[in-house]
Amino acid sequence: MGFYLIMPNHIHLFCSPQNEEYEIEHWITYWKREFRRHIDNKAPRFQSRGFHHRLRNEENYTEKWEYVRENPVRAGLVKDSDDWPYQGTLNDLDF
Predict the structure, then answer these.
(1) Which of 13, 20, 47, 94 is most enclosed, with most CB atoms within 10 A?
(2) What is the rounded CA–CA span in Å between residue 63 and residue 60?
(3) Which of 58, 69, 78 is closest to 12 using CA atoms?
C-alpha cells in the first residue's frame, strides 16, 4: 500500500514512481505544492530539505511505515498512532 502521514512541519509519503529514473526531489516539490493548494495556502512552512530512501522489499517497507506511524506519538501529539487523523492509504504498491 502507498501511505501518507502529515506532521505539523513535514510530510511522509510512501510512493512508487512508475519510472525509477525520476528524481524524488521533483515529487517532493510537487506534493508540497499540492498540499498548500488544497488547504488554501494556509499550510505551515515545511522543512526545507527532504530526506528520501528507496525501499527495496515489503519487509523494509513495513518496518519504515511503522516507524513513521509512531511519529505523532513521539512528538507528543497523540497517545496512540491510530488516533492521528492526518494519515491514510493512497494506493496499492507492487514489490
Answers:
(1) 13
(2) 5
(3) 69
